[in-house]
Amino acid sequence: MLIIKQYLPIPKQTDNEFWTVERIEHIRQLALTGKPSKIFPKWSSLRILDRVRFKNEDARISETPKARTFTKLAGIEMSAPLYLGDMSYGALSGNPNIIIARAADLTGTLAGTGEGGLHPEVAKSKRIFVQWASARFGVDFDVLMHGAGIVIKIGQGAKPGIGGHLPGSKVTEPISLTRRIPVGIDAISPAPHHDIYSIEDLGQRIEALKEATGKPVFVKVAATNYIPYIVSGIARMGADGVIIDGHGAGTGATPIVIRDNVGIPIELAVASADRVLREQGMRNNFHIIAAGRVADATDAAKLIALGADVVSVGTGALIAMGCVMVHKCHIGSCPTALTNKIDGSRMIDTDFGLKVLVNYIHGFSLELANILDNLGLSSIDELKGRRDLLVGKGLSRETLSVLGIEGEEEELPPKLGELWSRRRKVYLHELINKGDPVITSMGSTAPPDVEKPARIVDWLRSDGAQVTRPSIDPYREDIDTSFYLAGGRIYLSLPVIFDIIDAPEDERNALQWASLALSSAVFTDVTSRYYEDISISHDGKGVIKWSKNYEAGSYILLPSSEEAVEEVVELKGIPGFIIDEDLGNEDLEVVISEIDTKLKRMGIRKKFDLIAKSSRIRDSGDVFKLVALGADSVIMSYKVFEVALGEGSRSDLKSKAFNLISGFKKEIALLAGAAGVYSVQSTLTGNRELLRAINLNSYLLQKLRVKVAGSL
User: Fold this and answer.
1) Class of domain 81-384
2) Residue 489 buriedness (CB in 10 A; 0-12 / 13-18 / 19+)
């Protein structure tokens, strides 16, 4: 067995990462010395929290700061407002779970156990919060009686609206025994708790757990659209506090499509939740733990100033123990023995891990104390809710309003990055080879926080249903992703049509075959024999015709432009409009939204199909958001298939085309289920309320009629 007892070199980062080499090196410096290293770092980033600063920042550091970081959480004394995040036994490989729990005991902080049952050694620690999650893996009364408190896990930031996911390859015998599940079988938790379908149900569970154990009960939720209402409801139901897990939080395994498209940043969620609780007179004796991308003590200080009581550090703790951010947690081959499957091949040395993690906590706490000193505060409690100490730079008016801080307004242009990032190409390549939603690990690298946005949809996030309405489990329940177009003449099993005009013959044949097999459709100029029933064609031989000129009974192809918005009002006797971004001079998102809005206001929206077409639509996340903005379906270019193929083999193209369309269908079902949507066409189309914008400029917010994240 290989024992890991020192740091491995940090590999060269070829893609954009939130956890940059500089952030990792800062954490390692704390972990190796236990001394403060750096405060008020100025990271170059689009992340909102990085664009929030303290008005007075003095970066001088003392190893003996005067301010106290002592606080209390639900009556539990803490040396610093640090909660070592909920990471399960299974996601982690055993020794890291032990190290985290022991470190909490040694440092007077707190640690969460995650949902995978309780490791016997972890159970010996006293400063742990035991998790009560939807699958109840390995949970019974004896487990609940260990530790200092209980966490009802409703959601998490890396996968809002869906349940936990432990791949079967990591379910070895020790995990099987602890979780009480079969060896080698995926452990996928239900999306909702099947005994919690309302806020009243949650209240009953909170009271029952308090009555049974006498311990404080917290509720863990993801940061999603209705987080102020959700947190208000949790407070009214008698919980001692909430753990809000923001977009970008780390995890052992999650579908990429959920990780990158659902949920809102923790800073917006905390600010809005704190404000609503204060307005409703429920802030006293109710605690907020802020989780998700807390990288350093400066992040922690900002979140506390925005309204948090305590911050949760998960990925940061793993980096302190040696994580080098290779995003391989889900396949169990972690080089640092933190998230590898338990098979006797490698293990992290407990003494090494405990030493560096305890040092990290001490160094983090000293940096936090230095920040307090430099702000002229004597204790951490004096920082709570002090928005007046903060200022925003490079944020929209609406974002500053949600945060409740002063600042310099800046309207950022929507297109800053590349359309086809390397990560997107890799994801599509895996999708065509497997045909199932692609699973990854750790926190999101999606725009606008990490990678730069390439189009407007990159600034938008979808909702995750929880507490105030239940999510729908796409792994266990059928979600209707189908669409009827042209008055019922066209049936699509998903709102995706492939444009095969100009496609090479082999790709054209593959996409037609797969579309026929999966009840999708193709957009073409000339109808191919045998594919008449799935062809939206220019020659009129398919199921329906399209034309660039007005023809009764045909779809009309219009450029994505302001003129198209005006023109649709004059057209009658046609089944609908195809709005082509490649022909126009306006962003597809804006034109689709404006046409949808205009037709609704005229009371004639149901008479027409509105189809979005572009060679710059990249994946199912783009499709889902365009439908929410008003599209009935989306026409993607065959070039998406070419990007997915990449430099790989061109053999068996039919199977790969089948996998691509099938994978998109499953991913759209995942997004719909996470948002609490059973029927995509009837519930999602034009439902902008399921979308929130992340610091999108004010002009586009108004054009799209989408709310800013964190707003009510």
Assistant:
1) alpha beta
2) exposed
**Does the CA dihedral 360-164-235-203 come out positive or negative?**
negative
CA–CA gap between residue 215 and residue 110 (Å, rounded): 14
Whether the Cβ atoms of residue 160 and residue 709 lie closer than 8 Å to each other: no
Token representation of residue 653: 């193209």
- Token look-up 């999603």 returns 224
The domains spanning 81-384 and 456-694 adopt the same CATH topology = yes
**Residue ranges per structural domain of the chain:** 81-384, 456-694
376: which residues sit within 8 A by CB, 6+ positions away?
none
Mean pLDDT of 443-463: 96
Beta bridge partners of 499: 523, 637
Q: Give backbone dihedrals phi and psi of 667, rounded to 5 degrees, phi first.
A: -70, -40
The two tokens of residue 184 are: 């080698």
| C-alpha distances in Å from residue 226, one per residue of 28, 229, 466 | 37, 6, 9
What is the C-alpha separation between 114 and 136, in angstroms, rounded? 11
710/275 Cα distance (integer angstroms): 11
pLDDT at 570 over 80: no
Residue 444 has pLDDT above 90, yes or no: yes
Q: What's the count of helices (H) and strands (E) in the chain, helices before strands?
A: 21, 32
Q: What is d(CA 707, CA 681) in angstroms, rounded to the nearest whole number?
A: 22
Centre a 10 Å sphere on the Cβ of residue 552 and count the other Cβ atoms it contains. 9
Token pair listed for 120 = 């016997």
Q: Is the confidence at residue 139, as pLDDT, over 90?
A: no
Q: What integer best gives the mean pLDDT of the chain?
A: 95
Phi and psi, residue 425, nearest 5°: -65, -40
Q: What tokens does 557 get?
A: 């192809």
DSSP 270: H
Q: What is the pLDDT of residues 241-271, one digit of tens each?
A: 999 999 999 999 999 999 999 999 999 999 9
DSSP string, 63-120: SS--SB--EEETTEEESSSEEE----BTTB-SHHHHHHHHHHHHHT-EEE--SS---T
Architecture of domain 456-694: Alpha-Beta Barrel (3.20)
Q: Phi-psi region for residue 351, left (φ > 0), alpha (ψ -120 to 50) or beta?
A: alpha
| DSSP secondary structure letters along 299-339 | HHHHHHHHT-SEEEESHHHHHHTT----S-GGGT--TTSSS
Contact by Cβ (8 Å): 371, 298: yes
Question: Could you give the CA distance from residue 544 to residue 598 in angstroms, rounded to a whole number?
Answer: 25
Q: How far apart are CA 431 and CA 666, in angstroms?
A: 11
Is 127 exposed, middle or buried, given 0-12, 13-18 or 19+ CB atoms closer than 10 A?
A: buried
